[in-house]
C-alpha cells in the first residue's frame, strides 16, 4: 500500500477542504493509505470512525505562513508539517502533501527528507497552463534556489522531462531553456553554458524560449534558474489575476448594460477562466528529494487538493523517485 | 531649438505612422525640430514641402528585425538607424527615436552615441501600467544587459527615480527591488548586495517587490538585473496578450448570445484595455547614454509614436542627460 502523508493544517481552508478532497480521492485510489497530521479532535470530527485507508497522527503545532522557514522547522517540532516530514524520512510514509508555508516545506523537504544522492539541488516545479490546449507545461525551478549553477539546470530538465512523460503522459517532451533571446549565444554565462549542456544531452531540446512565449504551448518543459523562474511565475500569476480582477470589476460596476452583457457572455468568460485553472494539474513538485513532496497553493479548495492527491498517487505508481535514484547514482 | 532624430524606417507601420505622429506632435512642440532619416522619395510624399521644423536626411538602407545587431550596425552604414545615431553623436541632433530592431538600437546607442562618463552600463527602461491608476511604474533594466553587477542596479535606480520625478511628475518616487521574497535577506548575492546599497542611498527605497505585486502600483520605480527584467517584462506582456486574445476569441466564437454580451459589455471591456494601454507612457528609454535614445514597440501606431515624441521633448526640456552627466562625473 502507498502511504501519503497529508499535512492537514496548512492552507486557508485547512483542515476541512483537505479532508473533503482526500475522502473523495480515496474512493478511486484503493491502493493508497492517507495519513493525516494535525489537530486530533478536528480531524476526528471530519473523518469516518474506522477506515483502513485512513490514519490520524495527532500534532499540536502549526507552521504559519508568516513563520521564518528554518526557525519554524527547528522550533515547531510537533507541527503537522515537521512530524509528517519525519514520517516520510523514517519510511512510515512514501510522500508528503502540504498547503502550508512554501519556504518551510522546502526546508523540511531538503533537511528532513533529504536530497537524492547525486542530485545537486532539488527544484520546485509547477505545471502551468497554455493558451491552446489543456496539456500545460512544466517549469523548473521556480524558487527553491536563489542561486543556480549549470549542472543544476541540466538535472532539473532531466527530472522534469521524465515527470512530463510518466505523470502527464507527454511523449518525447519538448524541453526549452528560458532565455532573453532565441539564438544559442543569448543570455549570461550561466544560460549560455546550460544551452550547450542541453544541446549535448539526450533530451528533446528545442532551444531557447522567451517570457512572452511561455503560455503559447511551444514547450512541455521549461528550465530556468530559480531566481528568474520565481519572478516569472509570480509575474504571470499576478498579471492574470490583475486582468481578471479588473474585468470582473468592470463588468459588475458599469451599470445594468455591462452586467447584462456579462450574463450573456458568461459561458465564454468561463471557458477562458477554465483554461487558466491550474488546479487540474495538481501542485508544485519538489523534484530531487528522497520522496515526493508536493506543495499546493495555500488558497486551494477541495477540488485542487483532490487533483494533488491523484498526482502524488501517479508519481508513486510510476516510481519516479526510484528511477531518479538509480539514474543519478551513476 | 531641440533637434530630435527620427529613424523613419523602423517598425511595422513605417514611415507613414511615424510621419503622421510627428506632424501631430509638431504643432504642439514649437521649440522642436524633427529630422527624419529614411527613404527620401517616400518621406517627400508624406511631408509638407517647406517647414522649418522638419528636415529629411536621405538614407538607403534599413536594419530589419531579423538582422544580427552588431553586424547590422557595422555593415548597414547607410541605414536610417545608424545615420541617425551618427547625427546624434556628432551633435547635429539631440535625441533619437526608433521603432526598429531593439538589439541594433541598443548597439548603436552604446557604441555610436556612447555612455555617460561615470555610468557603468546603460539600462533599458519602459513605463508599465498599474491596476489602480494611470500613473504606471518604471522598470529598469529590461534587457540591455544579460549580466548585471550591484553598482549597475544602483545607478539605474538613481536615473529611473530622476526620470519618474522629472518626466512623469512623481514626487519622491518609491523605489523597490525586484526580488524573490519580501525580507531584506532574500535573493542571490547580487540582490542582497543591491538591497543594502539602495537602503544606504538617498533614494526613497521601499524594500523588495515580488513579481505578482508589480502591477499593483506598490512602487514607482522597480530596479532589476537585465536578465530577470527581460523575462518578467516579456512574461507580463505575453500573459496579458494571451488572456485578452482568448477573451476576444471566446466572445466572438461562442454564438450570438456571447456576441451580444460582448456588445453590451463593450465599454467595460474597453476600460480594462485602456488601463493596459502603455502607448500613453511613450517608449522605453535607454538611460545612461550621452543623449536620450527612445525605443518604441515595432507594432506601434501613430498615437503611440506621438506620445514617444512628447516624451523625448520632455526629457530634453528637463535636461535629464545634463543632470546625469554632472551627477555621475563626481
Describe what this molecule looks like in 3D.
The structure is a homodimer of 330-residue chains. The first copy, chain A, has helices at residues 16-28, 40-46, 69-75, 80-89, 102-113, 150-166, 189-200, 226-252, 255-264, 266-275, 302-317, 320-328, and strands at 2-7, 32-38, 54-58, 95-98, 123-125, 127-128, 137-140, 174-178, 204-209, 221-223, 284-287, 293-295. Chain A has two domains: 1-119 and 288-330, Isopropylmalate Dehydrogenase (3-Layer(aba) Sandwich); 125-278, Isopropylmalate Dehydrogenase. The first copy, chain A, has 330 residues and is an alpha/beta fold. The mean pLDDT of chain A is 95. Chain A is built from twelve helices and twelve strands. In chain A, the strands form two sheets. The first copy, chain A, has a seven-stranded mixed sheet with strand order 3-2-1-4-12-11-5, sandwiched between helices. Chain A has a five-stranded mixed sheet with strand order 6-7-10-8-9, covered by helices on one side. Chains A and B meet through α8, α9 and α10 of A and α8, α9 and α10 of B.
The average pLDDT score of chain A comes to 95
Strand order, main sheet of chain A: write it out.
Answer: 3-2-1-4-12-11-5
Quote the distance from N terminus to C terminus of chain A: 29 Å
The oligomeric state of the chains shown is homodimer
The share of residues in helices of chain A is: 40-55%
The CATH class label of the largest domain in chain A is Alpha Beta
The 3D shape of chain A can be described as: globular
How much β-strand is present in the residues of chain A?
15-25%
Number of helices of chain A: 12
Q: Given the helix and strand composition of chain A, which structural class is it?
A: alpha/beta
The CATH homologous superfamily name of the largest domain in chain A equals: Isopropylmalate Dehydrogenase
Radius of gyration of chain A: 20 Å
**Number of strand elements of chain A:** 12
Largest interface: A-B, 61 and 61 residues
Which blocks of ≥5 consecutive residues of chain A have pLDDT under 50?
none
Total number of distinct structural domains of chain A: 2
How can the largest sheet of chain A be summarized?
A: 7 strands, mixed
Which sequence of SSEs, written as H and E, runs from N to C of chain A?
EHEHEHHEHEEEHEHEEHHHEEHH
CATH topology group of the largest domain in chain A: Isopropylmalate Dehydrogenase
CATH level-two architecture of the largest domain in chain A: 3-Layer(aba) Sandwich
